[in-house]
Amino acid sequence: MTDFELHPRLAADTAFVADWTLCRVLLMNDARYPWLILVPRRAAAAEIFDLGPEDREMLIAEIALASERLKHVSRSAKINVGALGNLVPQLHIHIVARNPGDAAWPGPVWGVGAPQPYAAGAIETLVREIVKTF
Amino acid sequence: MTDFELHPRLAADTAFVADWTLCRVLLMNDARYPWLILVPRRAAAAEIFDLGPEDREMLIAEIALASERLKHVSRSAKINVGALGNLVPQLHIHIVARNPGDAAWPGPVWGVGAPQPYAAGAIETLVREIVKTF
Protein backbone atom coordinates (compact mmCIF):
# COMPACT_ATOMS: atom_id res chain seq x y z
CA MET A 1 0.00 0.00 0.00
CA THR A 2 2.94 2.32 0.53
CA ASP A 3 3.86 4.83 -2.14
CA PHE A 4 0.30 4.99 -3.46
CA GLU A 5 -0.72 8.53 -4.32
CA LEU A 6 -3.92 9.36 -6.12
CA HIS A 7 -3.28 10.97 -9.51
CA PRO A 8 -4.02 14.72 -9.22
CA ARG A 9 -6.42 14.64 -12.16
CA LEU A 10 -8.53 11.95 -10.46
CA ALA A 11 -8.38 13.85 -7.19
CA ALA A 12 -9.57 17.05 -8.89
CA ASP A 13 -12.50 15.41 -10.69
CA THR A 14 -13.97 13.34 -7.85
CA ALA A 15 -15.20 13.12 -4.26
CA PHE A 16 -13.88 10.48 -1.85
CA VAL A 17 -16.35 7.69 -1.05
CA ALA A 18 -14.42 4.94 0.75
CA ASP A 19 -11.23 2.90 0.92
CA TRP A 20 -12.02 -0.76 0.27
CA THR A 21 -9.55 -3.64 0.66
CA LEU A 22 -7.83 -2.92 -2.66
CA CYS A 23 -9.40 0.17 -4.18
CA ARG A 24 -10.06 3.75 -3.31
CA VAL A 25 -13.67 4.42 -4.29
CA LEU A 26 -14.40 7.85 -5.77
CA LEU A 27 -17.51 9.56 -7.14
CA MET A 28 -17.11 11.59 -10.32
CA ASN A 29 -18.28 15.17 -9.96
CA ASP A 30 -20.53 14.91 -13.01
CA ALA A 31 -24.25 15.02 -12.35
CA ARG A 32 -25.05 13.66 -15.82
CA TYR A 33 -24.37 10.08 -14.66
CA PRO A 34 -23.96 8.31 -11.32
CA TRP A 35 -20.30 7.41 -11.85
CA LEU A 36 -17.84 5.69 -9.51
CA ILE A 37 -14.12 5.27 -10.06
CA LEU A 38 -12.13 2.47 -8.42
CA VAL A 39 -8.40 3.06 -8.04
CA PRO A 40 -6.31 0.09 -6.84
CA ARG A 41 -4.01 1.45 -4.13
CA ARG A 42 -0.92 0.09 -5.83
CA ALA A 43 1.80 2.42 -7.00
CA ALA A 44 2.85 2.06 -10.64
CA ALA A 45 -0.05 -0.12 -11.81
CA ALA A 46 -1.20 1.01 -15.25
CA GLU A 47 -2.78 -2.14 -16.70
CA ILE A 48 -4.94 -4.77 -15.01
CA PHE A 49 -2.21 -7.33 -15.69
CA ASP A 50 0.22 -5.23 -13.65
CA LEU A 51 -1.67 -6.46 -10.57
CA GLY A 52 -0.78 -9.81 -9.02
CA PRO A 53 -3.31 -12.68 -9.03
CA GLU A 54 -4.70 -11.91 -5.55
CA ASP A 55 -5.15 -8.24 -6.36
CA ARG A 56 -6.88 -9.16 -9.61
CA GLU A 57 -9.40 -11.29 -7.75
CA MET A 58 -10.05 -8.50 -5.26
CA LEU A 59 -10.41 -6.05 -8.14
CA ILE A 60 -13.13 -8.05 -9.89
CA ALA A 61 -14.94 -8.56 -6.56
CA GLU A 62 -14.85 -4.81 -5.92
CA ILE A 63 -15.93 -4.03 -9.51
CA ALA A 64 -18.90 -6.39 -9.12
CA LEU A 65 -19.84 -4.93 -5.73
CA ALA A 66 -19.59 -1.32 -6.86
CA SER A 67 -21.53 -2.08 -10.05
CA GLU A 68 -24.36 -3.89 -8.28
CA ARG A 69 -24.72 -1.23 -5.57
CA LEU A 70 -24.53 1.67 -8.02
CA LYS A 71 -27.16 0.07 -10.26
CA HIS A 72 -29.38 -0.44 -7.23
CA VAL A 73 -28.96 3.02 -5.69
CA SER A 74 -29.36 4.81 -9.04
CA ARG A 75 -32.12 2.51 -10.36
CA SER A 76 -30.32 2.49 -13.71
CA ALA A 77 -30.81 0.28 -16.74
CA LYS A 78 -27.18 -0.69 -17.35
CA ILE A 79 -23.73 -0.44 -15.86
CA ASN A 80 -20.75 0.41 -18.07
CA VAL A 81 -17.33 -0.65 -16.84
CA GLY A 82 -14.17 0.72 -18.39
CA ALA A 83 -10.44 0.81 -17.77
CA LEU A 84 -8.99 3.19 -20.35
CA GLY A 85 -6.10 5.26 -19.03
CA ASN A 86 -5.13 6.93 -22.28
CA LEU A 87 -4.86 10.28 -20.50
CA VAL A 88 -4.38 9.34 -16.82
CA PRO A 89 -1.85 6.51 -16.63
CA GLN A 90 -2.71 5.41 -13.07
CA LEU A 91 -4.89 2.28 -13.27
CA HIS A 92 -8.50 3.24 -12.57
CA ILE A 93 -11.80 1.60 -13.39
CA HIS A 94 -14.91 3.56 -14.34
CA ILE A 95 -18.28 2.23 -13.15
CA VAL A 96 -20.97 4.30 -14.84
CA ALA A 97 -24.75 3.99 -14.43
CA ARG A 98 -26.48 4.40 -17.78
CA ASN A 99 -30.02 4.93 -18.97
CA PRO A 100 -31.65 5.28 -22.39
CA GLY A 101 -31.82 9.00 -23.13
CA ASP A 102 -28.87 10.02 -20.96
CA ALA A 103 -26.37 12.55 -22.34
CA ALA A 104 -24.30 9.97 -24.26
CA TRP A 105 -26.70 7.04 -24.74
CA PRO A 106 -26.09 4.56 -26.33
CA GLY A 107 -22.45 5.58 -26.80
CA PRO A 108 -19.76 5.61 -24.12
CA VAL A 109 -19.56 8.56 -21.71
CA TRP A 110 -15.86 9.27 -22.05
CA GLY A 111 -14.99 12.39 -24.01
CA VAL A 112 -18.64 13.30 -24.67
CA GLY A 113 -19.67 16.84 -23.74
CA ALA A 114 -18.55 18.67 -20.62
CA PRO A 115 -18.92 17.42 -17.04
CA GLN A 116 -21.82 18.99 -15.18
CA PRO A 117 -20.70 19.51 -11.56
CA TYR A 118 -23.19 18.71 -8.82
CA ALA A 119 -24.93 21.59 -7.07
CA ALA A 120 -23.43 22.58 -3.70
CA GLY A 121 -24.10 19.84 -1.17
CA ALA A 122 -25.55 17.41 -3.69
CA ILE A 123 -22.38 15.37 -4.11
CA GLU A 124 -22.03 14.90 -0.34
CA THR A 125 -25.66 13.75 -0.19
CA LEU A 126 -25.09 11.21 -2.96
CA VAL A 127 -21.85 9.98 -1.37
CA ARG A 128 -23.71 9.39 1.91
CA GLU A 129 -26.47 7.52 0.07
CA ILE A 130 -23.92 5.33 -1.72
CA VAL A 131 -21.93 4.65 1.45
CA LYS A 132 -25.12 3.49 3.20
CA THR A 133 -25.57 0.77 0.56
CA PHE A 134 -22.01 -0.57 0.94
CA MET B 1 -22.23 -23.98 -20.57
CA THR B 2 -25.48 -25.19 -22.09
CA ASP B 3 -27.82 -22.70 -23.69
CA PHE B 4 -25.01 -20.30 -24.53
CA GLU B 5 -25.42 -18.78 -27.96
CA LEU B 6 -23.27 -15.98 -29.26
CA HIS B 7 -25.30 -12.82 -29.94
CA PRO B 8 -25.72 -12.48 -33.75
CA ARG B 9 -24.30 -8.94 -33.75
CA LEU B 10 -21.08 -10.16 -32.10
CA ALA B 11 -20.93 -13.11 -34.50
CA ALA B 12 -21.32 -10.78 -37.50
CA ASP B 13 -18.61 -8.33 -36.41
CA THR B 14 -15.86 -10.75 -35.39
CA ALA B 15 -13.72 -13.78 -36.21
CA PHE B 16 -13.43 -16.73 -33.83
CA VAL B 17 -10.09 -16.99 -32.03
CA ALA B 18 -10.47 -19.58 -29.26
CA ASP B 19 -12.68 -20.97 -26.51
CA TRP B 20 -10.98 -20.48 -23.15
CA THR B 21 -12.20 -21.93 -19.85
CA LEU B 22 -14.88 -19.27 -19.41
CA CYS B 23 -14.86 -17.02 -22.45
CA ARG B 24 -15.17 -17.26 -26.17
CA VAL B 25 -12.36 -15.13 -27.59
CA LEU B 26 -13.18 -13.15 -30.74
CA LEU B 27 -11.26 -10.70 -32.92
CA MET B 28 -13.14 -7.61 -34.11
CA ASN B 29 -13.09 -7.22 -37.88
CA ASP B 30 -11.80 -3.66 -37.66
CA ALA B 31 -8.28 -3.09 -38.90
CA ARG B 32 -8.04 0.31 -37.15
CA TYR B 33 -7.23 -1.37 -33.82
CA PRO B 34 -6.14 -4.85 -32.68
CA TRP B 35 -9.32 -5.60 -30.73
CA LEU B 36 -10.38 -8.75 -28.91
CA ILE B 37 -13.78 -9.45 -27.39
CA LEU B 38 -14.25 -11.92 -24.54
CA VAL B 39 -17.72 -13.40 -24.15
CA PRO B 40 -18.35 -15.50 -21.02
CA ARG B 41 -20.15 -18.64 -22.22
CA ARG B 42 -22.99 -18.16 -19.76
CA ALA B 43 -26.51 -17.68 -20.99
CA ALA B 44 -28.34 -14.62 -19.68
CA ALA B 45 -25.33 -12.82 -18.17
CA ALA B 46 -25.58 -9.08 -18.89
CA GLU B 47 -23.54 -7.54 -16.06
CA ILE B 48 -20.27 -8.72 -14.49
CA PHE B 49 -22.14 -9.21 -11.19
CA ASP B 50 -24.46 -11.70 -12.92
CA LEU B 51 -21.52 -14.12 -12.86
CA GLY B 52 -20.84 -16.22 -9.77
CA PRO B 53 -17.64 -15.71 -7.75
CA GLU B 54 -15.67 -18.47 -9.52
CA ASP B 55 -16.65 -17.18 -12.94
CA ARG B 56 -15.65 -13.66 -11.92
CA GLU B 57 -12.18 -14.85 -10.95
CA MET B 58 -11.82 -16.70 -14.23
CA LEU B 59 -13.04 -13.61 -16.09
CA ILE B 60 -10.41 -11.31 -14.60
CA ALA B 61 -7.71 -13.92 -15.25
CA GLU B 62 -8.79 -14.17 -18.90
CA ILE B 63 -9.04 -10.36 -19.23
CA ALA B 64 -5.49 -10.04 -17.89
CA LEU B 65 -4.17 -12.79 -20.16
CA ALA B 66 -5.85 -11.42 -23.29
CA SER B 67 -4.70 -7.87 -22.48
CA GLU B 68 -1.09 -8.84 -21.88
CA ARG B 69 -0.86 -11.00 -24.99
CA LEU B 70 -2.62 -8.46 -27.21
CA LYS B 71 -0.33 -5.68 -25.99
CA HIS B 72 2.68 -7.88 -26.71
CA VAL B 73 1.62 -9.11 -30.15
CA SER B 74 0.51 -5.64 -31.30
CA ARG B 75 3.38 -3.75 -29.62
CA SER B 76 0.85 -1.17 -28.46
CA ALA B 77 1.18 1.61 -25.92
CA LYS B 78 -1.99 0.93 -23.90
CA ILE B 79 -4.80 -1.53 -23.48
CA ASN B 80 -8.38 -0.30 -23.06
CA VAL B 81 -10.83 -2.66 -21.36
CA GLY B 82 -14.55 -2.05 -21.51
CA ALA B 83 -17.81 -3.81 -20.70
CA LEU B 84 -20.57 -1.59 -22.05
CA GLY B 85 -23.49 -3.54 -23.49
CA ASN B 86 -25.79 -0.60 -24.16
CA LEU B 87 -26.62 -2.03 -27.60
CA VAL B 88 -25.75 -5.74 -27.29
CA PRO B 89 -27.12 -7.03 -23.97
CA GLN B 90 -25.01 -10.22 -23.86
CA LEU B 91 -22.10 -9.65 -21.45
CA HIS B 92 -18.93 -9.09 -23.48
CA ILE B 93 -15.64 -7.42 -22.66
CA HIS B 94 -13.68 -5.36 -25.17
CA ILE B 95 -9.87 -5.54 -25.05
CA VAL B 96 -8.53 -2.88 -27.41
CA ALA B 97 -4.89 -2.11 -28.23
CA ARG B 98 -4.37 1.65 -28.42
CA ASN B 99 -1.62 3.94 -29.65
CA PRO B 100 -1.18 7.71 -29.76
CA GLY B 101 -2.39 8.85 -33.18
CA ASP B 102 -4.83 5.98 -33.75
CA ALA B 103 -8.26 6.75 -35.19
CA ALA B 104 -9.85 7.65 -31.83
CA TRP B 105 -6.87 8.58 -29.62
CA PRO B 106 -7.09 9.61 -26.82
CA GLY B 107 -10.82 9.00 -26.70
CA PRO B 108 -12.56 5.63 -26.53
CA VAL B 109 -13.02 3.60 -29.72
CA TRP B 110 -16.71 2.82 -29.31
CA GLY B 111 -19.00 4.70 -31.66
CA VAL B 112 -16.16 6.58 -33.36
CA GLY B 113 -16.10 6.40 -37.17
CA ALA B 114 -16.84 3.29 -39.20
CA PRO B 115 -15.16 -0.10 -38.81
CA GLN B 116 -12.51 -0.78 -41.43
CA PRO B 117 -12.72 -4.49 -42.31
CA TYR B 118 -9.46 -6.37 -42.76
CA ALA B 119 -8.33 -7.18 -46.31
CA ALA B 120 -9.09 -10.72 -47.49
CA GLY B 121 -6.91 -13.18 -45.60
CA ALA B 122 -5.51 -10.59 -43.19
CA ILE B 123 -7.86 -11.41 -40.34
CA GLU B 124 -7.02 -15.12 -40.52
CA THR B 125 -3.30 -14.25 -40.44
CA LEU B 126 -3.77 -12.07 -37.35
CA VAL B 127 -5.89 -14.72 -35.62
CA ARG B 128 -3.13 -17.30 -36.21
CA GLU B 129 -0.53 -14.88 -34.85
CA ILE B 130 -2.63 -14.23 -31.73
CA VAL B 131 -3.37 -17.92 -31.17
CA LYS B 132 0.37 -18.69 -31.30
CA THR B 133 0.95 -16.33 -28.35
CA PHE B 134 -1.76 -17.97 -26.18
Q: Looking across the biggest beta sheet of chain A, what order are the strands in? A: 1-2-3-5-4
- Helix content range of the residues of chain A, please? 25-40%
In the CATH classification, which architecture of chain A applies? 2-Layer Sandwich
- Report the CATH topology name of chain A: HIT family, subunit A
How many separate structural domains of chain A?
1
Alpha-carbon distance between the termini of chain A? 22 Å
Count of helix runs of chain A: 3
* Oligomer description: homodimer
Sheet of most strands of chain A: 5 strands, antiparallel
| Most residues in contact: chain pair | A-B, 34 and 34 residues
Strand composition percent of chain A: 15-25%
Rg estimate of chain A, integer Å:
14 Å
Please provide the count of β strands of chain A.
5
CATH class of chain A: Alpha Beta
H-E order of chain A = HEEEHEEH
- Overall structural class of chain A, as computed from helix and strand content, comes to alpha+beta
The CATH homologous superfamily of chain A corresponds to HIT-like
Describe this structure in words.
The structure is a homodimer of 134-residue chains. With 134 residues, the first copy, chain A, is of the alpha+beta class. The first copy, chain A, has one domain: 2-Layer Sandwich (HIT family, subunit A), CATH 3.30.428. In chain A, 30% of the residues lie in helices and 22% in strands. In chain A, strands 1-2-3-5-4 form a five-stranded antiparallel beta sheet. The two termini of chain A are 22 Å apart. The model of chain A has no long low-confidence stretch (mean pLDDT 96). Chains A and B meet through helix 2 and strand 4 of A and helix 2 and strand 4 of B.
